[in-house]
Amino acid sequence: MSEVLKKIVILGFGNRAQCYAREFRNSLGNKVQIVAVVDPDIQGAKKRLNALNISATVYSTPEAMIVAEKEIDGIIIATPDNCHLESFRAVAVLNKPILMEKPLEGNAGNFSELAPELLAYKAPILVGHCMRHAPIFKKAKALLDAEVIGKITSMRFVQNCHYGDVFFRGWHRKSEAITSLYLEKASHDFDIMHMMNGDNYAESVFAFSKRYKYGGDKPNELTCAECPEEVSCPESVLNQQATINGMAVTVERVGRNKCVWAQEADIGDDEMCMIEFSNGVQGSYIQTFYTPANYKGRVYTVIGENGVLDIDVGHHHGRISVHQRYATKGDSTNYDFDYLGRNHYNGDTYIVRNFLGIMQGTEQPFTTAAAAIAAENIGLAAVRSVKSRQLETVENS
User: Fold this and answer.
1) Residues near 255 by beta carbon (within 8 Å), at least 6 away in sequence
2) Which end of the chain is flanked by fewer CB atoms within 10 Å, N or C?
3) 269 and 321 share a domain?
């Protein structure tokens, strides 16, 4: 018997939604159909759907979609970060499975309202912490559970983001929209910290945040295409694509074509924090958004009483290396991973498959609202610490 086609709607058809749409096709064949999209930019959404060869009805509001669409199996919320609360409330009446993109909310005040509503929602919620689904992190977790390095004592996580310019080309560069890159970007890494640490959540954080490179005195609406310095500016979209990306852009970068030197940029581009977890494990985290593309990306180190587990996540290939405390010099066990050109270290492949299983009633969310709330709470505590210059308690601990 063939599987029943599942029909989904997507709220917000920007950058991340396009990635999900491609992944449904690449990883699930024709098992899922996008029947509707909700986006106030109707013509822009239609253009992006056509580019992906997707036939779906576009509505300007969730209310209009709910009235017209009677057969819905699942919902994706991929609106801008600070719109997630209103997006969730608009579709919660349908009581259908939801895939909500991370972070759960970009606005700190909205987050405090959204978190309890997500936990009380009756249908399943899968959060877009797709890195938990990636084979490299699942293998690392299995090795740690097998105590290959003994009891975990500390963790050192670093993210070198060579494409950090994209966060300074549009609404992401404003704290009113995302609060901080501690939420927008680091929530991925905080979630993996929790995963590696057996979901023993963080208790306290001490953090710093600086803006060293981006922002400046350019007009907020200036785009690279209309700038007289487009060819000479090393950070222009033109030059970033030519010298760093090294490949054609396969999805339209919605709202990410403005000048990175804009006056309104008020978020940090270099951040670091110290974290203490409920089981006594201590951790450090650093994220920098102007590192070279030919340098390491994410590098995670987990230290145990009897060894060290390194995860060099890389860009296209990754490696786990296990170094035993009492092994001979130079001896290690290595596990290599090819991401097959897929997003988030091949994590997107498995998060959409998890969502299909949820809609079919055969699986539970692998990345839950509770875990996402815990990760985002680290980011919010880090933001408070930056302002207070003191150790801050993580609220959910």
Assistant:
1) 14, 169, 170, 171
2) N
3) yes
